[in-house]
Amino acid sequence: MTVEANIYALLSPFVGGRVFPDTAPFDTARPYITYQQVGGEVITPLGGGIPDKQNGYFQVNVWAGSRASAAALALQVEGAFRTATAFFAQPMAAPIADSDPDLGLYSAQQDFSVWSTR
Question: Is 81 in contact with 10 (CB distance < 8 Å)?
Fold first, then answer.
Protein backbone atom coordinates (compact mmCIF):
# COMPACT_ATOMS: atom_id res chain seq x y z
CA MET A 1 0.00 0.00 0.00
CA THR A 2 1.30 3.52 -0.78
CA VAL A 3 1.80 6.10 1.93
CA GLU A 4 -1.12 8.11 0.49
CA ALA A 5 -3.39 5.05 0.69
CA ASN A 6 -2.30 4.61 4.31
CA ILE A 7 -3.08 8.27 5.07
CA TYR A 8 -6.51 7.89 3.49
CA ALA A 9 -7.19 4.74 5.55
CA LEU A 10 -5.99 6.47 8.74
CA LEU A 11 -8.14 9.59 8.34
CA SER A 12 -11.30 8.23 6.68
CA PRO A 13 -13.04 7.09 9.88
CA PHE A 14 -13.02 10.66 11.25
CA VAL A 15 -15.01 12.10 8.33
CA GLY A 16 -16.95 9.23 6.79
CA GLY A 17 -14.44 8.72 3.98
CA ARG A 18 -14.39 12.38 2.90
CA VAL A 19 -10.59 12.54 2.55
CA PHE A 20 -9.11 13.96 -0.65
CA PRO A 21 -5.64 14.53 -2.10
CA ASP A 22 -5.05 18.23 -2.86
CA THR A 23 -8.63 19.57 -3.04
CA ALA A 24 -12.19 18.46 -2.37
CA PRO A 25 -15.16 18.93 -4.70
CA PHE A 26 -16.93 22.24 -4.03
CA ASP A 27 -20.10 20.68 -2.65
CA THR A 28 -18.41 18.21 -0.26
CA ALA A 29 -20.27 17.80 3.04
CA ARG A 30 -18.45 19.04 6.12
CA PRO A 31 -16.36 18.04 7.88
CA TYR A 32 -13.77 16.78 5.42
CA ILE A 33 -10.00 16.49 5.11
CA THR A 34 -7.55 17.30 2.34
CA TYR A 35 -3.85 16.46 2.24
CA GLN A 36 -0.90 17.02 -0.04
CA GLN A 37 2.77 16.24 -0.06
CA VAL A 38 4.82 19.42 0.33
CA GLY A 39 8.36 18.05 0.17
CA GLY A 40 10.40 15.69 2.28
CA GLU A 41 13.87 14.45 3.10
CA VAL A 42 15.87 12.67 0.41
CA ILE A 43 17.70 9.51 1.42
CA THR A 44 20.99 8.96 -0.42
CA PRO A 45 22.67 5.67 0.57
CA LEU A 46 26.47 5.83 0.67
CA GLY A 47 26.74 2.65 -1.40
CA GLY A 48 24.27 3.85 -4.02
CA GLY A 49 21.08 2.08 -4.88
CA ILE A 50 17.52 2.78 -3.92
CA PRO A 51 16.56 2.96 -0.22
CA ASP A 52 13.66 0.90 1.10
CA LYS A 53 12.30 3.89 3.12
CA GLN A 54 11.06 7.31 2.08
CA ASN A 55 10.15 10.55 3.80
CA GLY A 56 7.46 13.02 2.90
CA TYR A 57 6.18 16.20 4.46
CA PHE A 58 2.39 16.09 4.32
CA GLN A 59 0.17 19.09 4.89
CA VAL A 60 -3.18 17.98 6.31
CA ASN A 61 -6.11 20.38 6.23
CA VAL A 62 -9.33 19.81 8.14
CA TRP A 63 -12.44 21.68 7.05
CA ALA A 64 -15.57 22.21 9.16
CA GLY A 65 -18.52 24.52 9.71
CA SER A 66 -17.18 26.06 12.92
CA ARG A 67 -13.87 26.98 14.53
CA ALA A 68 -14.51 24.60 17.42
CA SER A 69 -15.27 21.68 15.09
CA ALA A 70 -12.15 22.31 13.01
CA ALA A 71 -9.96 22.53 16.12
CA ALA A 72 -11.41 19.32 17.58
CA LEU A 73 -10.94 17.43 14.31
CA ALA A 74 -7.36 18.72 14.01
CA LEU A 75 -6.58 17.26 17.45
CA GLN A 76 -7.98 13.88 16.36
CA VAL A 77 -5.88 13.96 13.18
CA GLU A 78 -2.71 14.80 15.12
CA GLY A 79 -3.37 11.96 17.53
CA ALA A 80 -3.94 9.54 14.67
CA PHE A 81 -0.68 10.52 12.96
CA ARG A 82 1.28 10.24 16.23
CA THR A 83 -0.03 6.71 16.90
CA ALA A 84 -0.14 5.39 13.31
CA THR A 85 1.24 1.89 12.80
CA ALA A 86 1.42 1.83 8.97
CA PHE A 87 4.08 4.57 9.04
CA PHE A 88 6.00 6.76 11.50
CA ALA A 89 4.88 10.40 11.67
CA GLN A 90 5.56 13.42 13.80
CA PRO A 91 4.09 16.93 13.70
CA MET A 92 6.42 19.59 12.33
CA ALA A 93 4.54 22.45 14.01
CA ALA A 94 1.25 23.21 15.70
CA PRO A 95 -1.91 23.67 13.59
CA ILE A 96 -2.62 26.93 11.78
CA ALA A 97 -6.23 28.15 11.86
CA ASP A 98 -7.97 29.82 8.92
CA SER A 99 -11.47 30.67 7.75
CA ASP A 100 -13.44 31.77 4.71
CA PRO A 101 -16.31 33.92 5.99
CA ASP A 102 -18.01 34.02 2.57
CA LEU A 103 -18.36 30.22 2.58
CA GLY A 104 -18.75 29.82 6.36
CA LEU A 105 -15.81 27.43 6.26
CA TYR A 106 -13.22 26.97 9.01
CA SER A 107 -9.97 25.06 8.71
CA ALA A 108 -6.91 23.94 10.60
CA GLN A 109 -3.73 22.98 8.76
CA GLN A 110 -0.82 21.00 10.15
CA ASP A 111 2.33 19.58 8.58
CA PHE A 112 3.71 16.14 9.42
CA SER A 113 6.98 14.43 8.61
CA VAL A 114 6.08 10.89 7.52
CA TRP A 115 8.52 7.98 7.17
CA SER A 116 7.24 4.96 5.28
CA THR A 117 8.33 2.00 3.22
CA ARG A 118 9.01 2.79 -0.41
Answer: yes
Which domains does the chain possess? 3-117 (3.30.2000.10)
C-alpha dist (Å) from residue 47 to 40, 53, 54: 21, 15, 17
C-beta of residue 87 within 8 angstroms of C-beta of residue 112:
no
Q: What is the pLDDT along the chain (118 residues), one digit of tens a residue?
A: 899 999 999 999 999 999 999 999 999 999 999 999 999 999 988 888 899 999 999 999 999 999 999 999 999 999 999 999 999 999 999 999 999 988 899 999 999 999 999 9
DSSP H or E segment with residue 6:
helix 3-11
pTM reported for the whole predicted model: 0.93
Going from the C-alpha of 100 to that of each of 20, 64, 66, 97, 103, the distances in angstroms are: 19, 11, 11, 11, 6
